[in-house]
């Protein structure tokens, strides 16, 4: 699971001082702000995800948990190997399961082995890269929502 929190406490305090619109904030604006940020986060993480079969990209999803003054957006990946992509792997041996043999093609020829020495993989923190790309968008969404809420007349 990937998780980050957008704390809107300062924005809310400003809004409450000026308008006293706490119900509007927590019921309308905070959920909308969280939805915008979650959509941006999902998109940018998918863009940064490595594409081989597309399973990793397609398996990324988000879930929003709303608090009184903040929203937590959790990211998920249904690809079972996500952790290995993000953290990388050490060199290791891959053995055939149940006494069978490993099979692959190399140079147009069939290759067989009972085990192979895998060299490991480098870490690829595509999640971190994607989330860094949305930082300016989060600030812009918060600014726009704050301005709209402060200008709101009822």
From TrEMBL:
Organism: Candidatus Chlorohelix allophototropha
Highest taxon of the lineage: Bacteria
Protein name stated in the entry: HK97 gp10 family phage protein
């Amino acid at each position: 699971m990937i998780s980050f929190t957008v704390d809107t406490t300062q924005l809310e305090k400003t809004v409450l001082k000026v308008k006293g619109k706490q119900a509007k904030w927590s019921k309308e604006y905070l959920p909308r702000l969280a939805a915008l940020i979650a959509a941006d986060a999902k998109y940018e993480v998918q863009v940064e995800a490595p594409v081989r079969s597309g399973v990793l990209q397609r398996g990324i999803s988000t879930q929003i948990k709303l608090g009184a003054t903040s929203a937590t957006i959790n990211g998920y990946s249904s690809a079972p190997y996500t952790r290995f992509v993000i953290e990388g792997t050490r060199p290791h041996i891959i053995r055939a399961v149940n006494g069978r043999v490993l099979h692959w093609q190399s140079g147009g020829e069939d290759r067989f082995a009972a085990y192979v020495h895998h060299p490991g993989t480098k870490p690829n923190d595509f999640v971190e890269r994607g989330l860094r790309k949305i930082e300016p968008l989060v600030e812009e969404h918060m600014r726009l929502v704050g301005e709209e809420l402060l200008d709101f007349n009822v």
